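Illustration 12: Ribosomal RNA small subunit methyltransferase G.
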Amino acid sequence: MEDVEGSLPVPDVAGRVFGDGLKKAVRFAGLLERYGVERGLIGPREVERIWDRHLLNSAVIGELIPPRARVIDVGSGGGFPGIPLALARPDLDLVLVEPMARRTEWLTEVAEFLGLGVAVVRGRAEERAIRAEVGRADVVTSRAVAPLARLADWCLPLVAKGGMMLAVKGASARDEVARDAKAIARSGGSAPSISQCGVGVLETPTTVVIVKPVFHVKPSTGKRWLAQ
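Figure caption equivalent — predicted structure in token form:
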């Protein structure tokens, strides 16, 4: 992997979102432009939308994350939202969890190349061994990974007391919340709320569903206990 000078224009708002991390964000955009399609990280039609659809869309959810929080990003894929979060919020302690080998290789390469202090773990969030390895975090994020019902099952056991699950969703978020609210409750989650991030900054703000753990549920027995 080597630095690639991308051809995509840098949006004016990128400096507001990434601050001191802008130069690294530009480098990351160049890497995605050069290698993203080739390595199966983004589709050909997404190249022109790397900044708005991927980098900025991911980074602005940092508005919801408290300072110096520990964050586990579930199903990081090509690095979203984890890598843009690390670039915009260097104060965060980030763990990227991804099951696919070729994607964990990419995440590791990018983190080393950009000098990001993130951990990359290969595995699935629902696996007992992975849960034991990564522990719990103040915030558990995900983007385009699964429906909310499944996300609650996978992510809520990783959320520490007082923390929250943040699921980046699209225009159908409200319908998904209505459909999956009961399943989320069975997984030990609170009633979901919806927040818009990047309002006044992005042309299309990022929609995030927020769920806080009320109970943890042991899948094998159905036993519930207060989140702690």
